[in-house]
Amino acid sequence: MTVAIEIEGLEKGMQTFEERFVIVKAKSQDDAYQKMENQKKSYVKPYLNSDGRQVRWRIESFDDCYETGVDKLSEFNNPEGVEVYSKLKSRKLTPERIWDGN
Asked: Most-buried pick from 57, 69, 93, 102 (CB within 10 A)?
């Protein structure tokens, strides 16, 4: 998800945002999205920062959903790690990226 940090009264300059990966126990992708949708209100609860300004973290978008193969918490103890997210991308094939089969 993408989460924007909104600061009361700031109207120009740069805004900080976060690309956040969240693990949700769900029955399906639709169920996962619904569970996160239900959390939107709790994310935006404002607080007072050290400069005396109200700050809130607001979910802007749910960018992707990925089903893991994790069935038990004990799998997180695996020394090889556990894959919790993957996104395939493309890039230009250059000579150093060519595999000759050996």
From this structure: 57
